[in-house]
Amino acid sequence: MSRDLDIRSGVYHDSVTLMQVSRTVGDEPGVSAALVAMATQLNVDLVVGMGFEPPADAGPNDLLIALEASDDDALARARAAADAALAASRTAPPSDFGSEPRPRTVGAAIARSDATIAFVSTPGAHAFGDAMDALTKGVPVIVFSDNVPLTQEVRLKEEASRRGLLVMGPDCGTAVIGGVGFGFANVVRPGPVGVVAASGTGAQHLMSLLDASDVGISHCLGVGGRDMSDEVGAVSTLAAMDALASDPATEVIVVVGKPPGPRAAERVRSHAAAQSTPVVFALLGEGEPDLTETARSVVDAAGATWSEPRSWPASTAPEPLLEGPAPHAPTAERPEDPASRSRGFVRGLFSGGTLCDEAMAIVSGELGEVRSNIPLRPEWALDADHDVGGHVMIDFGDDALTLGRPHPMIDGSLRAERILAEAGDPTCSVLLLDVVLGHGAHPDPAAELGPVIGEAQLTAARDGRELPVVVSLVGTAGDPQDLDRQAKTLNDAGAAVYVSNAAAAREAVRRVADRPAGQGPPDSVTDVLDTDDDLPGGEE
Amino acid sequence: MNALDSLLTSEPRVVAAGADLLSEALAGQAVPVERVEWQPPMPGTETSLYAVMADPRRVDANREALDRMLASTAELVDVRPAQDVLGLRPGEFLHAGPPLTWERASGPMRGALIGAMIFEGLASTPEQAEAALDAGEGISLTPCHDRGAVGPMAGVVSPSMWMFELRDEANDGTAWCSLNEGLGKVLRYGAYSSDVIDRLRWMSDVLGPLLQAAVRRRGRIDIKSIVAQMVQMGDEGHNRNRAGTLMLLRELLPDLIDSGAPSSQIAEAVRFVSGNDHFFLNLVMPAGKLQTSAGAGIDGATVVTTMARNGTDFGIQVSGTGSRWFTAPADTPHGLFLGSFGPDDANPDIGDSTICETMGIGGFAMASAPAIVRFVGGSVPEALRTSQLMYEITLAENPAYAFPILEFRGAPTGIDVTLVARTGILPQINTGMAGKVAGTGQVGAGLVKPPAECFTAALDALAGLSRSAL
């Protein structure tokens, strides 16, 4: 075994790029481990976990290249691969004699261009400086970054409001402005609906459902998940409503988000009442209509015809499964696990927080307590290692899980690990997953997730269990990933696929509720098709 | 139309900082995207940096500071002895850079002080001078900057030395600088041999009074306008002052000749000035002092008003923290050496001449002075890159000092402490190098940067004064 730890100073790359480089290097033959990352505390811990001495004097501005390979030749190849991948990721420096170096700050970039908007996705600890820079240069800003301290958010919004500008975010995952998608955004047709989004995936889901009913979007202005809290006071929500109200293309405004704090709610409602443009609220939570229902009412308000959201029910097991033991044929000799005699539990693994919220509201309404890292009730909180029985839903896009790593919509590896872990847990009786398409997201998520679903079902089958997988697929026909192809790949891999997240959650409930105590007979294709017609759901 | 209306009604044009994947997603939608080459700020600065950036006074305070700096004028109004203009008394010396004690003084600083003691008649031998300075009785050392003056290299000013006196009428400011002695073995590089002292005496006895007579006859000379012309003639104003020196001489010659002084003295003075390409440096520097001090003392402003070195420490002053110095050990320049001197002979960075970079020329104007880049060990592409990089850490462009090679872009002016911390880019300085042994003189010229700690310390102090809740 050959190992090498190289530290390079003064070379910065963003974490998404480095994650891709690490993966490229790790894929080299003979390479057993590769970590190419900035020397943040988190990454230094990872390097130590790989068995290296903690590097002295390495800081967040230094690049770590930790490699482990079968022999020196493989190590040399890994080094070369790392260098090549790093070089490829760098936009070529201007080599022309006398050409201007690239701007180093948002302010410098604004001074060079006549920008109408700044888009900041720098690490959360630093995004404040970049966003403040944009505002003081008179430019509205989208802050995609999460993990921005609350006091900094408040200060940014105070500055924006003083200057008649708008701060979209922090943690604004989605915005659509003049047909251009920022961050994670689906390709939606232009139209009369203006969206104010305190929830990125909520807005993506709503817009995708509207798009499927031929209702288009004028703009979607994200405001960040905390905007409608009393601490922030809905500053950006009000500014975004005003901007949309004076926008000639917008005929109806939809405000999407979790229920606001009481004081913020009062401000938002009275502000909405004073607008000449009608305002529809899509506030998610227990007792509120789900996004699919809201989408339907917006379609009605826009005078269009609602199309039922599509679905692709699970078919028979795909070919690769046949390589292992027959998935639906538990070995009779095997002593029965007591847990498998119960009905088992839903395990929801999400990349979109709002999709997770909505699924939790539906599942807990039917099945009771759902544990989560973003719990509906404080007493349902998961502990730090997320290891607990019962119905569990995890939002992998939550700040705590994206610290120092790319968002799960870009890199699904953390969730993939968890899927495989759940597959080995006899109490897990249905996996509920989301897949979000659009700009910014993984270029082919089904290709990444499909094999994981297959492997999970195979693992469960080896243990004599059936593991239904239900996928909520958020996307539009115009998305670069191709909605139909994604649905088909996931479906072929063994998953039931729904473009309505609420419908997916209800399907997960049904799979648990219908599951007979003890190991029941496998579902046949007909079973699934039959029951699909009377899916419970809000779209009757 | 306000920024939000135009945001929603025009095609988006984006500035993007952060994950490349996300800016590529925008570029993929055929949106114009100006990408920031982002990197984290200097390690350990984030708490102070964002507290300072959150200060609601910052933007307006910096604008005010820059408005004053750009409006600053610089006219040579008189030439007078330091004892008259600054009230210096025997034993009182000014020196370059932040405050310094004799104990901590480097070789060239000690050499210059020894020479000044001898020049003032306070000692007759170097040994005597050193003993007196060691004892400290009746001796006071004060930074030039604290008295509105600037001095190149050791920057030592004693009561009998003659000073250029410059006025900024726009901001009602006055600044002073000694007369330049020439190159080689000179007091400001720490040399104190008898020829050095003799030259200083001639400067006080002949050159000073002649210049005074000429300036008084001629009337005010617009130094700012000469600086503006020199940066278009291949001078960067710090290590190359050839065009500036000739233009000054052109202004002075008729009145020198008409002054009634003996023609031999006039010829000697003109020969001296013409033979010293750095003569005009001592006029650029007070023009810089006028400009930068015009922006000083504005609460909340984060713009650097002074960068100066005393041969031991590098010090900066920042508008929002007034006259407080932020110091750290000075680095040693890298560059080319005269004769048989080498890197081991060089003293750490020294002199107030970094006022040139503080005002936006010198190392910041390298692009405009291609003829000098080899002298400081650089190359022309590097010079073009360096000047353009300095715009990343400055708040304004000075239209008065325009660089033809950069399409007449104005000099990068007003170094912002927050931009230095955010980009990790340190100001580029062109400088002469003094020998580290007292009495050696100049050993070379090169490039150097201030220590980052000066800027992080200033940032911490500004954070302590910030009016924000962060």
Task: Please give a structural write-up.
The complex is a heterodimer of chains A (540) and B (470). Chain A has three domains: 2-89, 2-Layer Sandwich (Alpha-Beta Plaits), CATH 3.30.70; 106-301, 3-Layer(aba) Sandwich (Rossmann fold), CATH 3.40.50.261; 311-533, Rossmann fold (3-Layer(aba) Sandwich). Helix content of chain A is 37%, strand content 19%. Chain A has helices at residues 15-26, 41-49, 72-89, 106-112, 127-136, 150-162, 200-212, 235-245, 262-273, 291-301, 338-341, 353-367, 399-402, 413-423, 445-462, 483-492, 501-513, 525-533, and strands at 2-9, 31-38, 62-69, 117-121, 141-143, 167-168, 174-177, 180-183, 190-197, 217-222, 252-257, 279-283, 311-312, 345-350, 370-372, 391-395, 428-436, 469-474, 495-498. Chain A has a seven-stranded mixed beta sheet, with helices on both faces. In chain A, helix 5 links the parallel strand 4 and strand 5. Chain B is α+β, with helices and mostly antiparallel strands and 470 residues long. Chain B has helices at residues 3-9, 20-27, 46-54, 58-71, 82-85, 107-119, 126-135, 194-218, 223-230, 242-257, 263-274, 281-294, 355-359, 380-390, 417-423, 452-465, and strands at residues 14-18, 33-35, 75-81, 92-95, 140-143, 149-150, 162-168, 173-178, 221-222, 304-310, 313-318, 326-329, 334-337, 350-351, 394-403, 409-415, 429-434, 442-448. The longest helix of chain B has 25 residues, at 194-218. Chains A and B meet through helix 1, helix 4, strand 4, helix 5 and helix 6 of A and helix 1, strand 1, helix 2, helix 3 and helix 14 of B. Strand 4 (117-121) of chain A pairs parallel with strand 1 (14-18) of chain B, so a sheet runs across the interface.
